[in-house]
Design goal:
Elements lengths: L4 E4 L8 H15 L13 H5 L3 H18 L6 H10 L3 E5 L15 H11 L6 E3 L5 H7 L4 E4 L2 H7 L5 E4 L12 E4 L2 H12 L6
Parallel strand pairs: 1-2, 1-4, 2-3, 4-5, 5-6
Helix pairs in contact: 4-8
Pfam families: NT5C
Keywords: Hydrolase
Enzyme class: hydrolase
């Protein structure tokens, strides 16, 4: 069986950040008396709820630790990743998360919170790469064979060099192409890897 280096995004892949945005954003807007409509195809909070820069900062001041600590893992993500590693694949968690909304005494602690969340939900990995602004270049530099991603611009960029599984979300419906595979669950990811990528090696 071919052994691959598989890149796994965090927000939107290991968790359902779209659902979290919609739930927490609508609560925040109600409490702040903000009613400018809702754009389900927006990727960032300010795009989805038409927030000002100040409102966006206030949202993250209130909710950043809910995202870092309390957001649940997607069903069977831990189980499937365990199977993939048992099959001999390497799992590289590759995230753009940074310290942007961590202030004061928490500044610079994004690594700690990411690792704590992964440990909490028993997510195994071989390498962890965070605060990555250019995922396409990082995929090249660390030698990934496959990326699992949700952000449309990343899917478009990365699919030019390696296959990408795009985890379905309202904001990535336009992602298509010969190197793009749309997925809806972690066990579908596992089946797609078996069917399309885990061919028997010819020695």
């Amino acid at each position: 069986m071919v052994k691959m280096r598989i890149g796994v995004d965090l927000d939107g892949v290991l968790n359902d950040v779209a659902e979290w945005h919609f739930a927490c954003g609508s609560k925040f807007c109600l409490e702040q008396n903000i009613n400018r409509g809702f754009n389900p195809k927006g990727y960032y909070m300010e795009e989805q709820f038409h927030l000002t820069s100040e409102e966006n900062i206030e949202f993250w001041r209130q909710y950043i630790f809910d995202l870092l600590i309390a957001i649940p893992v997607r069903p069977y993500a831990s189980e499937v990743i365990h199977k993939l590693r048992k099959d001999g694949h390497k799992i590289i968690i590759l995230s753009a998360r940074d310290n942007q909304y961590l202030t004061h005494q928490y500044s610079g602690m994004i690594d700690y919170y990411v690792k704590a969340w992964l440990d909490k939900y028993n997510i195994e990995y071989d390498e962890l790469v965070i605060n990555t602004s250019n995922k396409r270049e990082k995929c090249l530099s660390i030698g990934l064979d496959l990326m699992i991603e949700d952000k449309a611009s990343n899917v478009d960029d990365i699919s030019k060099i390696i296959p990408v599984m795009v985890f379905d979300a309202p904001y990535n419906q336009g992602c298509t192409g010969k190197n793009v595979i749309r997925v809806y669950s972690w066990y579908q990811i596992y089946q797609e890897i078996i069917n399309k990528f885990a061919a028997v090696e010819i020695i």
